[in-house]
Amino acid sequence: MNESLTNRQIAFIIFGVLIGYGVMELPKNVAENAGTGGWLSLLIATAITIIFAYMITYLSYVYKNKTIYEYSERLTGKFITHIFMIIYIFYYFLGFTMITRVSCETIKLTILLKTPIWVLSLLFSFVIYYAVIKRLRVIARVCEIYGIFIIIAALLIHTSLFTQGKLINLRPFFVLEDLPLYFKSTLNMIFPFLGIEILTIIPFAKKNHKKVFKYITLMIVCISFFYIMIVESCISVMGVDEIVHYNDALYATIRRVDIPAFQVIRRLDGIFLIAWIMAIFCTITIWCYGAIVLLSKLFKKIHFNLLAFIVVFMGYIVSQMPTTYDQVKKVLDYMSYYGLVVMGIIPTILFFITKVKKYDKKMQ
Amino acid sequence: MKRKNKLFVEKIKTFSEGKFGVSVRKLTILNEEAFILYIQELTDGKILSDSIIKPILQNGKDTMLTIDKIFSSVIYIDDISMDDDENKIEDYILKGKSIIILSNSEKYIIANTLKIEKRAVSAPQVETTLRGPRDSFTENMDTNLSLIRYRIKDPSLRMDNFVIGRRTKTNVAVVYIEDIANKKHVDEVKKRLDEIDIDGVLESGYIQKFILNNTFDLFPQAGIVEQSDTACQNILEGKLCIIVEGSNLALVVPKTFIEFLDTGDDHYENLYLAIFSKMLRFSALGIALTLSALYVAVVSFHSDILPPQYILAIATSRVTVPFNAFLEVIAMEFITEVLREASIRLPQQVGAAISIVGAIVIGQAAVAAGLISPLMVIIASLSMMCSFVAADYTIMNPIRILKFMMIFITGIFGIFGFTLGFTFIIINLCSQTSFGIPYFAPIAPFNFQDLKNYIFSDVNLERKRPKFLNTIDKTRK
Amino acid sequence: MIRKCSNLLIIFIASLMLTSCWDYGDIDKKSMTISIGIEQIGDKVQFSGELAKLTPSKEGTEKAQTAQIYHTVSYGKNFEDARIHNDVINPFPVFLGVTRVVVFGTNYAKKGIEPYLNRIGSIYDYRKNLLSVVSREKPKALLNIKVEKDISVGFLIENMINSLANSGKTLYPNIGELLSNIALGKVGYVIPYVGIEHDHIAYLGFAVMKDSKLVGMIDLVDTDGVLYLLAEKPRLVEAIPDPEKEENIYSFRTVIKKRKIKTNYIDKKVEINIDLDLYAALQYQYHVAPLSDKKIKKLEERISEKVKEDIGSIIKRAQKEFQCDIFQFARYFRAQHPNIYKKIKWEEAFKDAAVNVTVQTKIINKNLEDPNAKKKY
Amino acid sequence: MIRKCSKLLIIFIFSLTLTSCWDYEDIDKKSIAISIGVDQVADKVQFSSEITKLIPSQGDTEKAQTANVYNTVSYGKNFEDARIHYDAINPFPVFLGVTRVVIFGTDYAKKGIESYFNRIGSIYDYRKTLLPVVSREKPTELFDIKVEKDISVGFLIENTINSLANSGKTLYPNVGEVLSNIALDEVGYVMPYVGIEHGHIVYLGFAVMKDSKLVGVIDLVDTDGVLYLLAEKPILVEAIPDPKKEENVYSFRTAIKKRKIKTNYMNKKVVINIDLDLNAALRYQYYTQPVSDKKIKKLEEMISEKVKEDMRNIIKRSQKEFQCDIFQFAKYFRAQYPNIYKKIKWEDAFKDANVNVTVKTKIINKNLADPNAKKKY
């Protein structure tokens, strides 16, 4: 089944994966850890992510139309590959369930107060199941359309937030003594950048030639500017001390602003909600797809749609398990460290093996 | 030698009993008889008598006529051929041809004397445009093919003919330009047309149902075209035009989603108007699908999205309304759909009046009786008007159905349901393919060039043909 | 098999969802509060609300007419108690999305408005860009005034403060800004102060809040100093008497060109330098008298002098009388010296901070008039 | 012959049916009663009601305006007598299909309302989903109040109780439920209790009915206990003061996750075990303080303690003061021990039954706020 995507679609898949739930509490994490100088730690985090992304793209580029399952089998043999696969599957599955649960929790607490959580995640599971059984190319097309809509909506919202915010809240931009603090705080700023490892399951085709590196790095840089724009606009409106109190910092800021210029849509939460739910949808579909593809690699016999039904159904059950909001938050914190392993360590191992054994020269 | 002749004579005998509606005309010339078999309703009496009976009788007076002599030098008709297979006689006669048999000849002559009433080429009814040629397709196949042929005088224009339907034997012509159209598409269409095994084909709609790759797809994959110039435009672009005998709407295959919104006269008007009308049509499509659902979301779920003055205005206008917003929207949409259906079904003189009068009177009375809020009447009529905007009305049918789905899901989950309902539609659109081409082509697998050409739809800027069609001859200029 | 049972599942869930729309509530089946007044009476909290009455008045005219108003009052020992007593009066669930203004009574403001601000911050349908106002009289009295100028008292107060703020004559602090000031901790803030004057609702000046408690009031006349420091684009009018002839007064409209606040910390004392560039436009003179360049120079000094004196006195008052940094200089200090800010206690440091204000004014136009035109005859 | 007379027969029957349409009556030719008030005045029964006035008012615009209302009063020895006097006043036959609420005066409620409930149960066009309400003041006084918030007093009361019931703050017992409780005669029941305060019609709490006679009133403040036991989905707000700092109050919104009532019968004494799982969500704190896990545990205990306290003293009150099982525990007992139930007399058994209540609360979220965020500066 040829799942080849154009470079542009791969870039927008990365946009779809990264921009999702992480955006909602990004201003709070940044303000809490690094204060107003948070933009610097974001840049550092982007640099690290670009390095990891380069490695993963290089692997996919070298092993044309192979996913991680195939080329890690070639590099490290069957047994280790199975371990890697289990790690990845569990990671994607956990990500899929917990992000669905935390998004439904946030939606329940912000706009649909009396709707029970299980109904919200049921509707989510329906639409995700429908999207996943259509395979990667359709998901990529949907991400492309939604990516553009989200960028336009975000530009509109955040420029208007800047006009309402006060510059003084953004200062001090950079405090020399806090430099070690900025480096330390990049650690708990991984969650918004989790998702790069999805590239491992996208097989590159011949048409994804040299320019794919340029596309991906350009997209990650654009995402990091997107994050910095969000953080700075929220801090400019709310001020560093206030924003740390809100887990849904971005939504709280948007509910606080009233732009008399746009007459009818002077309250921005309408546009924001639509754009944010679209972003959540893209993230969850791709994480779920990741889990299903790798599972289908392990269980070749079972038909893809049946596997998809099982994963979505299990995901729905698991997402109802945690009872309180804080449990879900704790799981998401562990996820970011787990993500380091998945995004960082395993690709670096495979990368070094390729370099050491010079497979890349042979494959050319 | 005599065996073939005996079979012919039997055939004549069976026909002459008059059971099959076939009339037999006997001519005695010198030493033998000549029989002319034809169907009264399908043949042009004048041609039959002037160019067949008269010359045979005149020449038959003094010279010995053999079948070959008659064939070559007696009959004046242009489309004439010889055959000797006796069971093909029936088919020829049913096709409106007349058969000439000599009493002792082994072969018979087939002369095309078909004449059926046909409508004159008139202005388009379905796809009316402000600027653009008036000659639209009619039910007659030859007129349609002639309309295309005189516009595209390209030697490589191909018109492959198919006969479909065991009983109706309708002629279906697939028209394309050989060195432009993509080989794969041509073969795919031909394969599907050959596979059709049905007793009768009466309208191009039948064919459309068969060439869909999945009957449960919501959105149409073949566009209908009534204006011959739009048909030629599509053929030049590399598409295939399927003309069905007896139907005035030809099919254009393969067709992607946004091409349904592209009318012919965008290409003739100036650039800015084309861009403006494209944007207008897209936003109208959006309004038709989402406006009522957004009304429900705003009035009943998150009404603090609107500024205070608007909330108070809506609330005061809705006070006397007994229904809740959800039922009110469903009722109003149902009324507008009933009005639309009534205005189509009613005879022409009554129809147009009813739809306008109906919408206004019912709306006004409903507001006066306090059953519907005035805002709702505006929204319902606006979304009804918006659904007439598309050039090819077939794209609007699924939109009308999906509008109800969006209202239901928004009625239950508010903006959350609205977004997921919208996502559901987008996934459905992106996953559909029309003959292998992604249905949402220039937008989903994004191609800036195609999209620019589509929006500008300006002939001299458009150097290349749309990439997703991957035609053989790529450049236009 | 899956196909069959999945259809069954879908039908079951669809029907389930259709029957129970949880969050469904039409806007006209809600009692919409336009403004809320909070007052502390004895040990009880008093909620007095102004709600939109949606039943159309008797002469149901065709066009949707503006809503009328009715008032509710409820008491309770804390907010939750008072809210339940408020709910029992209203026929429909209370909807706070339309609330325009929150009026705090004086003795509630003295007790501290932080709890209610946190409550606004957390309740779902309260808009955070709500205007909060302290009123001299009791909120109940304020809300029950008969209003012809506007739909209701809530709209009147909000429109009044809004138009004054747009023309640079007052501040329009919404709840969000107050909450971030509270989060900052070491600063006070000012809220518009309204009251009833000859039974008209009037804007009286600023109420000064220290740790969200009312500590003092700045009268309308000397709010200029505050506006020069806090307002984004203040446009104020200065009446300057002619140096030679006292009774000829020049009326100037002043606009801020540049405002820079620099703080530094020298031998344990905070120093705040405020320098201000003003544009002044001469609107008119009481008695048209020729205006030489020398006199213009003189007038510019007089204007700078007056503005400098205004700002100086208001800051001194903040340091001495209110003893709290109501101009949020802490933000500037923190921006410029973050680590020193961590070490020192800002409240004390501000009290004895040295403040020097420098103002330059430039008269840019004389409103297209030429006072020193020579008369022919 | 049969053919001839069958035609005759058809014409005859046809004309007969046409002339006499028995049940035909237009809705606008009926006087529509919106609410009925029943009270005992000395030995006479007083019927008072609100009837819609359908005569179009003078400014006759074709816009349908909402009906306005006129009141009627009639007296009689018993219901039938009062009803005849009542019919004598109205121009059209009375239509009870639209009646929203039945208001019982206190004196009539004390005498016993079972008789009127049976009347409601039997009269054809009385809807069984009618809301019965006991009012502190006389029904006639209630009807005389000028209502701006809603169309009429009946609509106002029904809407208020309905919106409170939907948000889980009261019970909405309709006539059907009350009739089934009456049928199970060993139990009492509660009904909403309304009154007039500062000219507003207010929901005051619950009226306790023992053998359908008013025996007591539960004030609004302590109705929580009843709701935790009887309401389907009670959503109540608990204000819990901080254990250490009294004046910092935490406001929780509680919802029931699971409610189990088990009864058993040990040595001649009925034991009722009620255990309740609550989900509490912290909505806001008056003064945002960090909330450690230890404090969360402490708060959970305090909530459970408070809710247990509420339920225990309401049950004690129903045992001691009202001496009747207003929570219909009899149903649970009969379900679990049908044969014992037949033997014992439930009223006395309930009076000295011992009740143990266990409540477990779990704080599920802090409304997306993170109070223990580390401040940077």
From TrEMBL, chain A:
Source taxon at top rank:
Bacteria
TM helices/strands, residue ranges: 7-24, 36-59, 79-99, 111-133, 145-165, 185-205, 212-230, 271-295, 302-322, 334-353
Q: How does it sit in the membrane?
A: Multi-pass membrane protein
Among Pfam families, the record links this protein to: Spore_permease
Q: Name one GO cellular component term.
A: membrane
Whether NADP counts among this entry's keywords is no
Location relative to the cell: Membrane
Provide this UniProt record's keywords sorted from A to Z. Germination, Membrane, Transmembrane, Transmembrane helix, Transport
GO biological-process terms attached to the record: spore germination
Among PANTHER family, the record links this protein to: SPORE GERMINATION PROTEIN A2 (PTHR34975)
Q: Which family does it belong to?
A: Belongs to the amino acid-polyamine-organocation (APC) superfamily. Spore germination protein (SGP) (TC 2.A.3.9) family.
Spell out the protein name for this chain.
Spore germination protein
Give the source species: Marinisporobacter balticus
UniProtKB/TrEMBL annotation, chain B:
Keyword check for Transmembrane: yes
- Keyword Cell cycle assigned to the entry: answer is no
Q: Which GO terms describe its biological process?
A: spore germination
Where do transmembrane segments lie in this chain? 279-298, 350-369, 375-395, 407-427
Listed under GO cellular component are: membrane
Q: Which PANTHER family match?
A: LEUCINE ZIPPER PROTEIN 4, SPORE GERMINATION PROTEIN
Q: What is this protein called?
A: Spore germination protein KA
Query: Pfam families of this UniProt entry?
Result: GerA (PF03323)
Q: What is the lineage of its organism?
A: Bacteria, Bacillati, Bacillota, Clostridia, Peptostreptococcales
Q: Which family does it belong to?
A: Belongs to the GerABKA family.
Q: Which keywords annotate this record?
A: Membrane, Transmembrane, Transmembrane helix
- InterPro entries attached to this UniProt entry: Spore_Ger (IPR004995), UPF0353/GerABKA_families (IPR050768)
Automatic annotation (TrEMBL), chain C:
Topology relative to the membrane: Lipid-anchor
What InterPro entries would the database entry show? Answer: GerAC_N (IPR057336), Spore_GerAC-like (IPR008844), Spore_GerAC-like_C (IPR046953), Spore_GerAC_C_sf (IPR038501)
Instruction: Give the CC-aspect GO terms.
Output: membrane
Keyword set includes Lipoprotein: yes
Domain Spore germination GerAC-like C-terminal stretches: 205-365
Q: Which GO terms describe its biological process?
A: spore germination
Q: Which UniProt keywords apply?
A: Germination, Lipoprotein, Membrane, Palmitate, Signal
Gene3D superfamilies xrefs: Nutrient germinant receptor protein C, domain 3 (3.30.300.210)
Query: PANTHER family from the entry?
Result: SPORE GERMINATION PROTEIN B3
The entry assigns this protein to a family as follows: Belongs to the GerABKC lipoprotein family.
Q: What is this protein called?
A: Spore germination protein KC
TrEMBL record, chain D:
Name the UniProt key words of this record, in alphabetical order: Germination, Lipoprotein, Membrane, Palmitate, Signal
Would the keyword Signal turn up in this protein's UniProt record?
yes
**Stated family:** Belongs to the GerABKC lipoprotein family.
> Domain Spore germination GerAC-like C-terminal: where?
205-365
How does this protein lie in the membrane? Lipid-anchor
Q: Which Pfam families match?
A: Spore_GerAC (PF05504), Spore_GerAC_N (PF25198)
Q: Where in the cell is it found?
A: Membrane
Residue ranges annotated for the Spore germination protein N-terminal domain, each copy included: 23-195
Gene3D superfamilies found in the cross-reference section: Nutrient germinant receptor protein C, domain 3
Gene Ontology biological process terms, A to Z: spore germination
- Per the record's keyword annotation, is Transport included, yes or no? no
Q: Which organism is it from?
A: Marinisporobacter balticus
Against NCBIfam families, the record matches this protein to: spore_ger_x_C
Please give the PROSITE patterns that the UniProt record associates with this protein. Answer: PROKAR_LIPOPROTEIN
Against PANTHER family, the record matches this protein to: SPORE GERMINATION PROTEIN B3 (PTHR35789)
What does the entry list under GO cellular component? membrane
What name does UniProt use for this protein? Answer: Ger(X)C family germination protein
